[in-house]
Amino acid sequence: MSSTNFITRNPNPLIDLSEQTFGRLTVVTRTPNNNRGDVMWLCFCKCGNQKVIRGACLRAGTTKSCGCISRELASARNWKGGRSKTGDGYIKIKKSNHLNADKKGYILEHTFVMSEHLGRPLEKNENIHHKNGIRADNRLENLELWSTSQPFGQRVEDKVAWAKEILRQAVLDKYRNK
Ligand SMILES: [Zn+2]
């Protein structure tokens, strides 16, 4: 059956869309109607795909590509310069060369911020506490470095204070014993 037969056998007046372009799509030829009786056209997309699309969608401008435009938009929305949110609400960023990065090159942003502040990677027993409880708020002033070595969960600052106190007591003892 030639394409001419398609056209002449269609009871509705048909607008021939052959060789017209709609967005990224260029119409090649008509194809059999879909099972709902819609007029269908085979189109080539600029991206290299081909797809059969309803004529009504082409003429209304609702279909402008094989689907590649919306795929590109979706990936652009998800791509935030390598910045994304983990399932538990933390921000991870791409820093492939960082010693605290995982195998895929991602590091939790709060780890990175603290590590930049300290000028060294974090140790295994160190982690970061978000003071205001908002896991995506990685301003340095919202972050607190915790050490999970014994005693569990003690702040590094507290440990420093504790060490200073021991020293102070030692000095006091020495003074008293004189
Ligand atoms: Zn395409």
Commentary on this structure:
- This protein is an alpha+beta fold and 178 residues long.
- It folds into 2 domains: 3-70, no CATH class; 83-173, no CATH class.
- 31% of the residues lie in helices and 24% in strands.
- The protein has helices at residues 3-9, 55-60, 68-78, 109-118, 156-177; strands spanning 21-22, 25-31, 40-45, 50-54, 83-85, 91-94, 106-108, 126-130, 143-147, 154-155.
- It has a 4-stranded antiparallel β-sheet with strand order 1-2-3-4. Strands 5-6-7 form a 3-stranded antiparallel β-sheet. Strands 8-9-10 form a 3-stranded antiparallel β-sheet.
- The longest helix has 22 residues, at 156-177.
- The model has no long low-confidence stretch (mean pLDDT 84).
- Zinc ion binds next to loops.
Ligands and ions found: zinc ion
Number of domains: 2
Poorly predicted runs: none
Taken in chain order, the helices and strands follow as HEEEEHHEEEHEEEH
- What Rg do the Cα atoms give? 32 Å
Helix segment tally: 5
Strand content: 15-25%
Query: What profile does the largest beta sheet have?
Result: 4 strands, antiparallel
Helix-residue proportion: 25-40%
Task: Kindly report the spatial arrangement of strands forming the biggest sheet.
Answer: 1-2-3-4
Structural class by helix and strand composition: alpha+beta
Shape, principal axes of CA atoms: rod-shaped
